[in-house]
Amino acid sequence: MLHQIIKQAIRNNNRLLSKYKSQPLLIDNIKPSTKVDLLNTRLLTELVSRINTRIKQDLIPKLKLYESYYSNKVMDSSVLLDLDYVDDIKSVINTITLDYSGITFNQIVESVVKQFAENSQKDITAALTKEINRLVGIDISPFIQSHTDDIKQTLEYCKDYIVSIPQKYLADVQSTVLLNIQKGMRSSSIIKELANQYGITLNRAKVIARDQTSKLNLALTTAQAKDIGSDEFKFSTSQDERVRSTHRAADGKLCKVGDSVYNLRYDVMCRCVLIIVVHFD
Ligand SMILES: [Zn+2]
């Protein structure tokens, strides 16, 4: 339907008609806005920060409490298995892990993913509407459909990535704590390492947020293009020195869903854009 509406708008305008008789319509600028990037990033960094608060509240006091038992003595890793205070420390980490892996946490992840989808859908709809308006002078916003089904798979992957954040974080916390206890470190240096791990996890969460926003954008752009009657795209890089050489080589090339050029967009943190190419003949 969108294809017909745009086609009609072109037919009604002589200048547009003569232009798009000989060349396809190129719909550009469909990329995640900085605002959406920030919104989605905040959802994940807040999650990491809440886990860090639990570590500070529940774990660190225990590390301090038992410090005299472990600091300044090196132990064999097998000894660690028999110590009650080590069990106590492990059970604290285990409780936090359970809080970030059960049904309640799954519901939190579901709602975060839903937010991601809503933010991205709003974003791409706005970008597309603006671009069509600029190109052919009509407002297509009443005709834009939601694409919940087309992004299902992408949202599943997104969910898996989000679930992996506390899992990996808390597994790393556990191994850091146990290794340092075994080495007879002071609690202050374990706390420093935990702060460092918090920083690493925050960065990981930011990368996941950006990358998943980009993947959602790809899925939505592809679904939206289908509505407009197009399955053809022009690959476009951000033209800076950070662009991968393989992506630079694809700049300006035409592609279709699933071909090798299109699939470059699945590379982690790809910032390239697919320009929608629409033919009217
Ligand atoms: Zn790229």
Q: Order of strands across the widest beta sheet?
A: 1-4-2-3
What is the count of structural domains?
1
Percentage of residues in DSSP E strands: 5-15%
Main beta sheet strand tally, sense and closure: 4 strands, antiparallel
- Label the overall shape: elongated
C-alpha termini separation: 16 Å
Residue share in helices?
55-70%
Helix- and strand-based class? alpha+beta
Average residue pLDDT:
94
- Got a strand count? 4
Bound molecules: zinc ion
**Element-level helix/strand string:** HHEHHHHHHHEHEHE
Search tags:
binds zinc ion, 281 residues, 4-stranded antiparallel beta sheet
Entry summary:
By secondary structure, the chain is an alpha+beta fold. It has helices at residues 2-11, 14-22, 34-65, 67-70, 77-80, 84-99, 103-136, 152-182, 187-228, 245-250, 260-263; strands spanning 25-27, 232-236, 254-256, 273-278.
Description:
There is one protein chain. With 281 residues, the chain is of the alpha+beta class. It has one domain (2-278). The protein is built from 11 helices and 4 strands; from the N terminus they run H-H-E-H-H-H-H-H-H-H-E-H-E-H-E. It has helices at residues 2-11, 14-22, 34-65, 67-70, 77-80, 84-99, 103-136, 152-182, 187-228, 245-250, 260-263; strands at residues 25-27, 232-236, 254-256, 273-278. A 4-stranded antiparallel β-sheet has the order 1-4-2-3. Helix 3 (34-65) runs parallel beside helix 8, helix 6 packs antiparallel against helix 8 (152-182) and helix 7 crosses helix 9. The longest helix is centred in the C-terminal third of the chain and has 42 residues, at 187-228. The two termini are 16 Å apart. Residues 237, 247, 270-272 line the site of zinc ion. Zinc ion (ZN) binds at residues 237, 247, 270-272.
